[in-house]
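Summary of Year 1 activities. Much of the first year was spent building the evaluation harness for sequence design. The harness presents a backbone, in tokenized form, and records the residue chosen at every position. We chose the following record to illustrate the format because it has been used consistently in internal testing since the harness was completed.
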């Protein structure tokens, strides 16, 4: 299954890419809710946290290390919020797992 984020990862639609590894891409949110609003997205299509498998453990850990790195690079260390929305529990618009990083610094 594909998603809008898969299209971004495959460069089928444009986005403002902040950082990228073999497994993860970081883009600016198209509708920012803070001065800095980034999305940390695994390239593997995982719909929600509910769909995580044991084999995804290191990928999820890497998402947090990428969050730490981009926060450091942007100079917002200690001043940012990370959150996941999970479908049904809270509104998740894009069914492709992503970690929001927000800062008003
Ligand atoms: P969710 O509600 O699923 O946790 O958040 C999805 C986020 O993706 C929203 O903040 C929304 O603004 C962002 N978004 C949706 N479509 C696009 C897009 O095509 N490009 C970018 N850069 N962000 C998007």
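For this record, the design step produced the sequence shown next.
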């Amino acid at each position: 299954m594909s998603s809008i984020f898969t299209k971004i990862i495959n460069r089928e639609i444009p986005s403002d890419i902040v950082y990228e590894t073999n497994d993860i891409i970081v883009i600016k949110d198209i509708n920012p809710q803070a001065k800095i609003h980034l999305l940390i997205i695994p390239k593997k299509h995982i719909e929600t946290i509910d769909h995580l498998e044991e084999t995804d453990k290191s990928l999820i850990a890497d998402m947090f290390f990428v969050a730490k790195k981009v926060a450091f690079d942007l100079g917002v260390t200690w001043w940012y919020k990370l959150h996941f929305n999970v479908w049904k529990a809270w509104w998740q618009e894009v069914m492709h797992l992503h970690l929001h990083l927000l800062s008003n610094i």
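The two ends are 37 Å apart (CA to CA). Quantitative recovery figures across the full test set are reported in Table 2.
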